[in-house]
Specification:
alpha+beta, Rossmann fold
Amino acid sequence: MTKNKQTPRAFGIWGNTDKDKFWDNLIPILEWANDKKIEPYITTRIKDNLPKGFEKKVNIINSAKDFLKIDFLLTLGGDGTILSAARAIGNRKTPILGVHVGELGFLAEVTMDDMFDRLNMVSQGNFLIQNRMVLKAEIDNGDTPKTFYALNDFVIDRGKSQRLITMELFANHHFISKYKSDGLIFSTPTGSTAYSLSAGGPIVMPKLKAIVVTPLSPHTLTLRPIVVPDDQILEIKFVDDDKVAFAVDGQVSEYLSPGSRVLIKKSSFDIKMIKFEDSNYFQTLRLKMGWGKRGQI
């Protein structure tokens, strides 16, 4: 992690507008910004859902280029809110400060209870920046090639089919194995505590640079998750004739035809997350995942 070197002059707000807690806290956040003389920006989705009689003056994030005008992006929601914000920011290097609103959320360390304490620290420049690895997928599906980016994971699974799918996996042109399973998860260290973990994958600390490959219900006991360094380019080939589903961070998906070519590798850019001196990854694991706890008898 690197220490921050400046105090913010402008920030953006990105939130789950379906949550009542988001609307309950929007006005207090804008009042905080006015008190600290930090210019606020909101997304077009927030603007379109503003309650009648809203009179606060705010700027609007109309396009991805507007992320370059802000010093950090405050997200209010769950992990999905952070993931969608990360995709929107892309390679623009805008740091994200995630506030957890709702059920289980692992990416956002800040809670509603300590939000303004943390915001005050950010306004004083008292925070750290942690770079999170991003995965890039290049797909040749027989038409125009497509590129996707994921902060958590890419998932290839059987989609609508009831049959196991067969895939061959290569790393830097070296054959790894043939997988006959429900699918494969390719996760970043950040995503190692998400779908990959529930499928039996390892926990990998976010500051590491690696790719986790976790099979979904493999039809053999010998195929286990594998962690490869970030200099590997993974290629997936499909043996079956059925279409398979491809998902990005659990939110974007499409179907791949037989003969499609998928390459997965480390992206050329990272996503920057705001952390603090007292941030404790293992404490987060224990509190939110129940990690290390024994079952009750």
